[in-house]
Amino acid sequence: MHHKIxxxxxxxxxxxxxxxxxTIGKKLAQKLNKQFYDSDHVMEMREGLSVLDIHxxxxxxxxxxxxxxxxxEILGYGEVVLSTGGNSFMNDSIRQLIKDHGVSxxxxxxxxxxxxxxxxxxxxxxxxxxDKLKIIEQMVLEYYPIYEEADIKVENRNSNVHYIVDDILLxxxxxxxx
Length: 178
Prior knowledge:
With 178 residues, the protein is an alpha/beta fold.
């Protein structure tokens, strides 16, 4: 039934760190029989450093420029599924690129869910210092109003991945009709 979906643009997953963008992106790509890319992963491969290290050693501006370059390139590949870094959509020029060339899907998680996921790992710029819950609450205030600009919003609590993928597929279908 899903194979009737005709999205002829890149599908771009956005959302906070720990919202499940990579896991869900991979499954979504499989179901749609499309290529999957993770912009963080592509950056890491090219730079030979983790995103945290690129950020720390090369600096914020370098990081942003690289991220924009990578996302722009992948959007140019056409019908792919792309998961982006938690901050990507906050960058005005990246957000505009995504709006112009892709369909954005916000994987929304509430604060508790995000905190539980993030507190298990220490790999994100800005989250490896200080009170994580406070930082996340601050990020939610700052990020969510911008994330709201996404074409599609899908809630990811600790639901089954397949359930979330089906939800995305359903919403993509509705988009086509409208």
